[in-house]
Amino acid sequence: MSVAFLSAQRSKDPSSQVGACIVNDDKKIVGIGYNGMPNGCSDNTLPWTKEHDDQLETKYPYVCHAEMNAIMNKNSADVKNCTLYVALFPCNNCAKLVIQSGIKKIMYFSDKHKDKPETKASKRMMDLAQIQYKQYIPKTKKVVIDFSAIDQSVFGPS
Asked: Is residue 67 annotated as part of the catalytic site, yes or no?
């Protein structure tokens, strides 16, 4: 889950930075993603707004969710039977991608949209597809990367 949260830091979304990490049965990472604009579409050109009179001026028609990017950026032939670690419970569109990709388990951190129809639809589809989902409860509350504590001489000249 820490890798999913680290990946989320790359998102330019000012309101929801979401990351995802796909792990196979050998506990090896096979895909990572975060929410962002499609390849070739500048994060600085398309809108990140949540609300606007014109829906085309919001992020929703454009943004690719972390789950989609993790599946599309996979570094293996497929992700069948893998586990998806994700910061936020998948929406209905991401649930369809997860189901179609063959992922069999989801570990999510937050379910803050549990009362939205999209999330209810997501859970309904996952139940029908027999995909397990479970809230991730961290064993530790803090992960720190302190670059000042790293001995740079170990890595040679920069």
From this structure: yes
